Amino acid sequence: MKLQNLLLLSIFLCFTAVLHAQEMNEEKVSQAVQTSFDQAFAGAQDVQWVPMNNQYKVSFKTSDNLKAKGVFSATGKLVSYEKEIYSNNLPLAAVSYLRTEMPKYGITEATEFYSNGTVHYRMRVRGGENNEVKTLKFTEEGELIPSK
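RESULT FIELD:
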């Protein structure tokens, strides 16, 4: 039994060391990536970088203390991001859709996504007869994206 516990502890410590070793300090991120990040997310806090193939993954809190994460190429190009937003930052058409088509639902979470030059929004809502949770996706203009 002691041998099993020792083995499990050793595996845990190795796993933790590998994860910690992958995190990078801002000093180790290229100047091009850091400049691009600073321009895109001014005022970011609690920034943590992780190398990922030929890219850099970053997680942070926005200037208004909301969670966000992004991916930058080695040359500093913003590849994608995902960030929490306040519901009043959703497209008006998306909020109007919820009010007219799902009046018994309220917004519990709102997220903005960017990838391949396109912005989309996700709205997590709760309500209805069974207090169910649903996820709705919208274009930048606020048009509903049908679920697959």
